[in-house]
Design goal:
Blueprint: H1 2-19, E1 21-29, E2 42-50, E3 53-61, E4 67-74, E5 83-86, E6 90-91, E7 98-100, E8 106-108, H2 111-118, E9 122-128, E10 136-140
């Protein structure tokens, strides 16, 4: 009987690990900044966690300034924090919008980053030349 219980426990973990995937949409806007920023800038990203890896894809547009940087930062919904992962973007012609491709934005998660993700303490921040601390932002939901 103990062998059967052990077998099912191992099988359950194996199936979970092999198929574990969580995807959320992250809405980017100036209203999510701390303090809020008035901007037409907006975006919609998809954040996917598969096992120990995190992937980001999607797009943004209409920044008030030209693109400056994009990153995943540490912090809760009303906190500001330091960048943990730099995101790569393919910019549009006017450099006020762009696209994040999944294959260019894949990250291996460390234990502390996994914990922050579980607690909902990671957000995406996109900065422009006009708002170098960030023009649009979106909180990654607890995963």
């Amino acid at each position: 009987m103990k062998w059967i219980t052990l077998f099912f426990t191992i099988a359950a973990f194996s199936v979970f690990d092999a198929t574990a995937q969580t995807t959320f949409e992250v809405d980017l806007g100036g209203h999510n900044k701390v303090p809020p920023i008035r901007t037409a800038g907006n975006g919609l990203l998809e954040v996917t966690v598969e096992g120990d890896s995190l992937f980001v894809s999607g797009s943004f547009e209409e920044l008030r300034g030209t693109f400056w940087s994009a990153s995943i930062n540490y912090g809760g919904p009303r906190d500001t924090g330091n960048p943990l992962m730099r995101l790569k973007v393919e910019l549009n012609e006017s450099r006020n919008g762009g696209e994040f491709r999944r294959e260019d934005n894949a990250f291996e998660l460390r234990p502390a980053q996994k914990q922050a993700l579980r607690e909902g303490k990671l957000y995406i921040n996109i900065s422009s030349s006009r708002h170098q601390d960030g023009e649009i932002r979106g909180q990654i939901p607890r995963m």
